[in-house]
Amino acid sequence: MFQLTSAETLRVVQVTDTHLFGDIGGKLLGVPTYDSMQAVLAQLDDFEFSADALLVTGDLSQDGSEQSYRLLDDALERYQSPVFWLPGNHDAPHNLEKVGREKDRLHKVIRAKHWQIVMLDSQVEGAVFGQLKQSELDLLEQALTEEPELHTLVCLHHHPIRMNSEWMDNIGLRNRSELMDILAAHDNAKAVLWGHVHQSCDGYVNGVRLMSTPSTCIQFEPQTSDFSLDDVAPGFRWLELHKDGRISTGVERLSNVSFDVDRTQTGY
C-alpha cells in the first residue's frame, strides 16, 4: 500500500497504451510509439495541472523487452509525483515487474486523504482478452471493505463494459459481471478507469462512473464491427477526485503534432 500526500482534492493523470519497443525507433502501424508518447508527455508538461500521481494503465510495451520499460521509466523521471503501472495484454510480466519493482511503480492500493486507487491486473498471459483472477477480486473487495469512508477509483487495462464494437468486445474483460457485482455492493466504489480500447468514453452504470482513455499512439475507431483505425489524435486523461466523491475529468489530445498511420494493416 502506498500513502499519497495530497490536498483536499486528489489530482491524477492517466497515460495508457504507450506500446513502446526496445528500439527507440520502433513503429506500430506506422506510428513511432516513442515519439508519439514523448509528444503527449510534452503536452502534459505544458498543461496547467499539478498531478499527485500518474497512472499508466497497461500495454506499456509492444515487444515486451526490458529496454522498452526502461525507456518508459526514463521518460517519466521528469515528474515529481509518484508513477504507478499495471500490465496489459501486450506486456511481458517478468520485464515489467523487474523494472517496475526497481522503480517502486507496482503498488496495488494507493491511498490519500479522501480517496483510494486500486490497481488491478487483468492480464491473461498469451491472450488478448482480460480476466481478473480471484486474488484480484479479493484484493478489491478487501480494499473497499477496509476503508468504507474512502471513495474508490478502480483501474485496470481491459474494458469492463461493452464498447458497441464487435471485434473489440471479444477482447474485453471476460468476468466483467463479477467486477461489477463487487462495485455494486459498496457505496464507496465511485469509478472505473481503463485503457486497451484506444478511445475515450465516459458514462455511468448503476451510479459508478466508467471511463476509458486514448492511447499515446494509434486510436481505434469507435463502434465498428471489424478492426478500424481512427484519425483522432493521441492524448491523456486528467482527473480531479473531490473529497465529496465527485469527479471532474477531461481528455487532452495532441494539438500541434500529427503522425501518419499505416491503414493497410488489419490488426496490431
TrEMBL record:
UniProt keyword list: Hydrolase, Iron, Metal-binding
Domain annotation Calcineurin-like phosphoesterase: ranges: 10-199
InterPro entries given in the database record: Calcineurin-like_PHP, CNP_phosphodiesterase-III, GpdQ/CpdA-like, Metallo-depent_PP-like
CDD domains assigned: MPP_GpdQ
Family: Belongs to the cyclic nucleotide phosphodiesterase class-III family.
Protein name: 3',5'-cyclic-AMP phosphodiesterase
Record organism: Thalassolituus maritimus
